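The step that takes the researchers longest sounds almost clerical: writing a folded protein down as plain text. The outcome of that step, for a single protein, is printed below.
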Amino acid sequence: MKRIEKLIKSAQDVLKFAYAPYSKFKVGAAILTKKGKIYTGANIENVSYGLSICAERIALYKALVDGAKDFSAIAIYTPTKNFTYPCGACRQVLAEFNPNIYVLLINQKGAIKQFTLSQLLSFPFLKRHLK
């Protein structure tokens, strides 16, 4: 199986671990390192909504605690008719590591839309702004 196909399947498979009892809106994500390793995440809600965390950040954080920092693509799957784009917080966090990461959006029919993160987040706040 090709890397991108495996990435998409991983995002779809991890959806079963989403915890969304309040919104009923489940998201699966999988991030691909430049070395070919895949890390997955599913959204986790909390009754105090501000404590919820998106699938994209869970996948990224799992990769980071494993020592990975070079990412080439992220797949985001939702079992919905429309495509679900990453929220602003996820876009900003992803930009910290690769502002040009490929973002693949997958809907319930398996249709795919592809963007670079820089197309979705025009002016991220980056480390160079701290200088």
